[in-house]
Each structure stands twice: as structure tokens, then as C-alpha cells.
Design a protein that fits this description.
The protein is an alpha/beta fold. It is 31% helix and 25% strand. It has 5 helices and 7 strands, in the order E-H-E-H-E-H-E-E-E-H-E-H. It has helices spanning 16-28, 68-75, 93-101, 141-157, 173-181, and strands at residues 2-7, 33-38, 79-85, 106-113, 116-121, 128-134, 162-167. It has a 5-stranded parallel β-sheet with strand order 2-1-3-6-7, sandwiched between helices. A two-stranded antiparallel sheet has the order 4-5. Helix 1 crosses helix 5 (173-181). The termini are close together.
Length: 183
């Protein structure tokens, strides 16, 4: 299985979460092909909502930065893992920035699925999704529910399955790698 991990630890953080994600990636590499994007080390711009990726240059973002390899990896992977420390009740700004820009991978056209409006697929295959999060001292159950619900909606819009939400320090790296492998 091919796995892409988007690591959203912010530049201002200690780097310990990046090390943790690296250890998970190493454990997964025993059985899978794994790409890790440490977003804090990349030049990534925010989505400007210009819609060029839908109308002017379909499937291509107008912002010229380091996002293109991420888009290619995401659309060619079997499992996309969003990972981030929780900051102010949500994923990091680094992860949110690239999550918003994944809109480039779908069409602007709408179809009805399960009595809801969702975007049509631009590509034949999309990866299932999962979350690995690190709680902050002020993280509560409502924060976790909001994050999980938002990524449920994202997976629903991409017409894929959100497979899991793992919390750092609640399972060992080996347990997480085994659970991912056994999905």
C-alpha cells in the first residue's frame, strides 16, 4: 500500500511531533511505501479562493509554491494521513493551509450523493483518509469531535472513507502501524 503523510507541525513547535511522525513512517515502511511531507519545511501559500484550479487551469493551482508534489502524491496514494498537534482547538495552520488547497483535486461540478451536494471527482481513484493528532493541554472532547467531523465531511466530499483518528500517546507507534496495516 502507498501512504502519504501530511505532517502539520508548525515551525514554532519543538519538532517532537515531527520526530514522532517520522517514527510512525519508519514503522510503516516495513510493509508499505511511505511519503512524508513536513509542511513546516515547505513554501506553501494559503488558498486565495481564486477558483483558477477549476476554471482557468483545471486541476492546477495558480499559486506557484511547493504544493504540486503534495497534490501528485495525494492523488497517487492509497491512504492519506493528516497529522497535526492540536492548536487552539483545531489542526495547525500548516495542515489547514494544504487541506484547503486539496480542492484542486476535484471538479467544481456538483452531484447528489446520499441526499447531499458534493463535488464530482476529477480523478478515477482517491485515497482513503486518516488522522493522527496530538492533544494540547487545553484540548477537550469537543475539539476532537469538531476536528473529526470536519475530516468526515472532507472524506465525504472526496467520496472516500475516513478510516481512523489516532491520538499520540494513546497507542504505541507499533500499534498504530499495525492498525494501519490491517485496515
Amino acid at each position: 500500500m502507498k501512504i502519504t503523510i501530511l505532517n502539520g507541525e508548525n515551525k514554532s513547535d519543538s519538532g517532537k511531533f515531527t520526530e514522532y511522525i517520522g517514527n510512525i513512517a519508519d514503522a510503516l515502511k516495513e510493509n508499505h511505501s511511505v511519503d512524508v511531507f513536513n509542511l513546516r519545511e515547505m513554501n506553501l501559500k494559503f488558498c486565495t479562493g481564486c477558483w483558477s484550479c477549476w476554471w482557468k487551469t483545471p486541476g492546477e493551482c495558480a499559486s506557484k509554491d511547493d504544493a504540486e508534489p503534495i497534490f501528485r502524491s495525494v492523488i497517487n496514494t492509497d491512504l492519506l494521513i493528516f497529522s497535526s498537534p492540536i492548536t487552539a482547538g483545531f489542526t495547525s495552520s500548516e495542515l489547514k493551509k494544504i487541506t484547503d488547497r486539496l480542492i484542486v483535486l476535484i471538479h467544481p461540478y456538483i452531484q447528489i450523493r446520499e441526499d447531499e451536494c458534493h463535488h464530482q471527482k476529477r480523478y478515477e481513484k482517491y485515497p482513503d483518509m486518516g488522522l493522527i493528532l496530538e492533544k494540547n493541554t487545553d484540548t477537550d472532547d469537543e475539539d476532537l469531535k469538531i476536528i473529526s467531523d470536519i475530516y468526515d465531511r472532507l472524506s465525504k466530499n472526496f467520496d472516500v472513507t475516513k478510516r481512523f483518528v489516532f491520538l499520540k500517546d494513546q497507542q504505541s507507534i507499533k500499534e498504530i502501524a499495525n492498525e494501519i496495516t490491517n485496515y
